[in-house]
Amino acid sequence: MIFFRKGASQTTRLSESELVVSNEILLEKLNLISNKSLTRAAILLFHNNPEKFISGAYIKIGFFNEHLEVAFHDEIHGSLFYQIEETIEILTKKYLRTNLRFGDIKRTEELDYPVRALREAIINAIAHKDYSLHNPVQIKVFENKIQIFNEGTLPNNWTIEQFLGNHPSRPANPMIANVLFRAGYIEAWGTGISVIIRECNIRGLPLPQFNFDFGGLMVEIQQNNLNAKVLSSGLYKALELLLSQGSNPSITDRNISEFAPIAKRLEDKSLSLIIAFPEGDPLRRKDVMTLIDLTNQTYNTERYLTPLIKEGLISQIIKSRPNSSNQRYILTEKGSKFKYILRSITKNES
């Protein structure tokens, strides 16, 4: 009930007097008790383990690499309110990339996707899922897009065009949708799809795709992939300026053609790691990942540290035993040049 009470207290959809009551009275008020028993909606919304009664009532997330193989995955179990909050938390911290923004006194990071659009898509999937089919909501994260799928069908006689346009609210699970609305998780009736489209448009992303060909709704949000181009352009500008000034004789025009493609291949957290990596100080893997506020877990190191090693920007001290507990990592000469250039972008753009 914590998520519901907190959300509802911040809206005007329930009065304070309606909230300062026992859980049982509140469930009665929300029409979630029938014949002295909890309804299915009540179990899904508030039970810590709804799968005990309704199988498939959870969310599955997977990250797919360039070969469309699952690199890592998670399952989020618990009440629907918990699933919403935990899914957003895991997506933003573990699955989604951030874009480096240069030009301010401090560099800032921005997720590839608008969080509000993702949140709306997840809430929409939960509110409209057909729970009688016992399959989880599925979220697939790729390098350049994210897909959110829930089983269910369009209301009778609706076309996809009507679904994407202005339409009356007709949720598949009215009781669930009503509670989410009263808790402020749903902005207004029938506006979920328009919110997703609007948020993507604000961020300059391609129009989201909505597909009903798989026995349910697949929402696909794509990246615009502009960051790599901007960064590549910034590298060229910084390199050309450094060359003209002769401020670092060790950097030559050969680096222009060498470093820009590397920047395109690396994720932004890897670039942040290079910028933060100290010169000449060997670090343990745990300390390396701390530089970008990540845990020392395999999926983090393989995604952000290993590519830097493959590009020759960071080197392992104990090459004969890469998995040694005494292993340390150090910035290479090539990595030092790359770091110098990345830092120069910040200075030249500010």
- Level of helix content? 40-55%
- The strands making up the biggest β-sheet line up spatially as 4-3-7-8-10-9
**Backbone shape:** elongated
The pLDDT mean sits at 83
Strand content: 15-25%
* CATH architecture type of the largest domain: 2-Layer Sandwich
- Can you count the helices? 15
Q: What is the β-strand count?
A: 12
Distance between the termini: 47 Å
CATH fold annotation of the largest domain: Heat Shock Protein 90
Tell me the structural class. alpha+beta
Pfam family, one: HATPase_c_4
InterPro entries: Fic-like_C, RecG_C_sf
Domain Filamentation induced by cAMP protein Fic-like C-terminal: 280-332
Protein name: Putative ATP-dependent DNA helicase recG C-terminal
Could you explain the architecture of this structure?
This protein has 350 residues and is α+β, with helices and mostly antiparallel strands. The protein has 2 domains: 48-222, Heat Shock Protein 90; 226-349, Orthogonal Bundle (Arc Repressor Mutant, subunit A). The chain contains 15 helices and 12 strands. It has helices at 2-9, 16-19, 23-29, 40-46, 80-95, 115-128, 160-164, 174-182, 192-202, 226-245, 254-265, 268-276, 285-290, 298-310, 333-349; strands spanning 33-34, 37-38, 59-64, 70-76, 98-101, 108-111, 137-141, 145-151, 209-211, 216-222, 314-316, 329-331. The strands form 4 sheets. It has a 6-stranded mixed beta sheet with strand order 4-3-7-8-10-9, with helices on one face. A two-stranded antiparallel ribbon has the order 1-2. β3 and β4 form a beta hairpin. α5 runs antiparallel to α6 and α10 runs antiparallel to α11. The radius of gyration is 24 Å and the shape is elongated. The two termini are 47 Å apart. Mean pLDDT is 83; it is low at 102-107 and 226-230.
